[in-house]
Every structure is written in C-alpha cells, then in structure tokens.
Please model this.
Amino acid sequence: MLPPSCRQPAAFQLYRWTTQPYDFVRHNVARHGDAFTAHLAGFGSAVFLSRPDEIAQVWTADPDILQAGKGNDIIEPFVGSNSVLVLDGPRHRRARRLLMPAFHGQRSRAWGPAIVAATRRVMAPVRSGDTIRIQDVAQRISLDIILQIVFGIDPDRLGEARDAVVTAMDSAGPLVVFFQFLQRDLGPGSPGRRLKRASERADQVLFDTIAARRAASEPGDDILSTLLAARDEDGQPMSDDELRDELWTLLVAGHETTATAITWALHHIASHPEVRSRLATERAELGDDPAVLARAPYLSAVCAESLRLTPILPIVMRVADQPIQIGRWTLPVGMRVAPCMLLVHRRADLFEDPDAFKPERFLDRSFGPSEFFPFGGGNRRCLGAAFAELEMRLVVSTLLETAWLPRPAHIDTIRRNLALGPADGTQLHVA
Model:
C-alpha cells in the first residue's frame, strides 16, 4: 500500500515541485496527511515522508535495497558518472573510503584560519553606505574557499578558475536541472549549448589543476593532494576522470549550498537584533581564535536553527531496488522515497512554535538524526558535513564584523539550482 496520490498531471506536479516546493509539500500534506505520493514527469513516482519513525527506517535500510545513487540521478549530468553521490554498491563504498580521509574532523579544523582570511579578503572593498547582496558575497567566499582548500589554488590566481566554475554553475539553473530536455544542445542560444560550452571550459580548468598537482615535486595540504595519494584496497589510485567527477561533486555540493546556508543565516540574524546582540556578546567573550569560534555554543545554535527553519535542500531521495516495507507503506521496485526536511523541520510535535526563529531550542535539547537532518542521513550522510558546518559558522561570525542594518523578517524562497534560497539574495545595508 502506498500513501494517497496527488491527482494533478505529472508535468504540473514537477513544475510545482521545481518552482514552489514549500507550497507543493504543504498543500499535499494538508490534503493527504503526513505522507503522500507525488508523480513527477520524467522522474517517476515518489513517496514523501514526514514522520521521524518512518524516516529512521529509511536511514537504517539496506543501502543495496534503498539506493541513494539512483535517487541522485538528477545530478549525474552535472557531476559525472563517477561521483560518490550517484554511485551505489561496491563502487560507492570504494569511492567513499577514498574520500573519507580528506574530510577527517581534525584536518578540517586546521582550515579555520584560511576560511576567515578568505571572508575578510572578499569583504575588504565594502564601505559604509554600501548595499550588499549577501548571496553574491557568500558565493564568492564559498567558491574561493573551495578553490583554495580543495583545489590548492593560490589566492592570487583564483580569477580564471572562479570565472569558469561560476559560468558553468550559472548555466545549470533549476529548469535546466529538472527539465532534462533543456540539457540537450539545440544550437546557438539554447540552454543546452550554453551548458555544454561552460562545462567544457570548467572541465579544462579541473583537468589542468589535476595535472599540475600530479606534476608537483611536493604534495600540497589541499584536499586534491590527499585524493591523489589515496589508494583503494587493491592499491589503485583514482583516475583523472574519477578525480574530475569528485571535484565537480565538491563544487556542486559545497559551493551553492553552503553559500545559500550562509545567506539564510545572515537574513535571520539581521531580522532578529536580539540574536545579533547575543552573538556579539559571545564573540567578545570567546575572542577571535577560529578553533574556539567553530565550537561557540550560541553561534552553532544559530546556524543549526537557520538550517532547520530554512533547509537548503528540501528532500533526501532513495530508490527501491527491491520491494521494501517502510512503516505503513510497501514500496514497489523503482519507487522513490523522499524524507522531507521542509516538513519534518516544521513539525510542531518536535519543535515548539516551529515557524519562529529560536536558536535556543538547540541549546535546550538535541535532536535525533530522523528529526533534524540538514545533511541527509544514514550511510549517505554528507561526507563534507563537518567542513560545511565549520565554514558556515566561521563565515557568518566574520561577516558579523560588518555592521548590517536590520531587515524585515519575511522573504520569499526560490530555487537556486537544487538549493532553496531567499528570493532577493538578502540585500543588506552597511551602517
């Protein structure tokens, strides 16, 4: 048995899910209950879940039965067929083992000073009286951090790589991602032609960077150098194509998403002066050491509350490779199942006054992995989650060195590629 089905045409459901995800899930929960079955043209049917007990079963299910790689097939054209995100089975386990050392917690903490320095470098030209679109600032900061820490590119030589990557990612807007026919090269001026040419230029930058790092006399302390040194159980290294796909994965998963998370956090802080004041007090007490700030309790709670109230990704997706029972529902082969952050993170039985921004809730109690899961869950929880949290906290704390004027508390949400961001990019005025 499956949950009640949405009755609109599948193409209309896909359009609504692509352009109005909050309205789409809220309408269907109000109509059908805490689980429903959507039919998305080109992607098949998907069961949306919002009960933590059922989501816990998704996290603990056999990964060879509920397959996350198949669930991420929408991004394969952008990250490549070797990406850890789109693999299942032995190939996924090999890729994950090769990647894990690069994101070891102690290693990540050493990147704190570089994150703070990149943020201050981007903010250096800002002056009192300027109006800044935080989304643009956060994207520049996030990309520069990735190009330095992941690729090992010197800060003085970021320009060409930055331009190539930004052009490629901007060519993959939400309609191109979700409506696959737009990815085809239909000639000059078509979205597919722009995507193809921008991707080829960015690929050249990636392959040149890989070649330069292979030829270097001494290994660097960047993530790419760690990946080049990694060996699987048979002693085999990653190929250039595998490295290219994993670098694209880190760009797609770590650039737009982290920048959007930072933007939302600044929006919420600017809308709540009492939060800004408490953050300033905490910063004054703790000082400027990035290692200390990365563990600051209230700053961590503010970032967590921002990810709860405005999650960057709306769902996590799995595909059933065999029939499987999840809670009340029997999923047939090929059925997608989607634990939905948009719904779970707003449950009144988990979060008191769920539509309010209250960082204190994360100081008062902890939430389980099926109650709060901004980075996914189970064996496919984001490998870079600790790095993303570190970056978010340190960039937000550093951006608060600038005096921003308060903003209204409400703003519309739009899709930014796969991420859900504020419609105006959060424009703030510098005092």
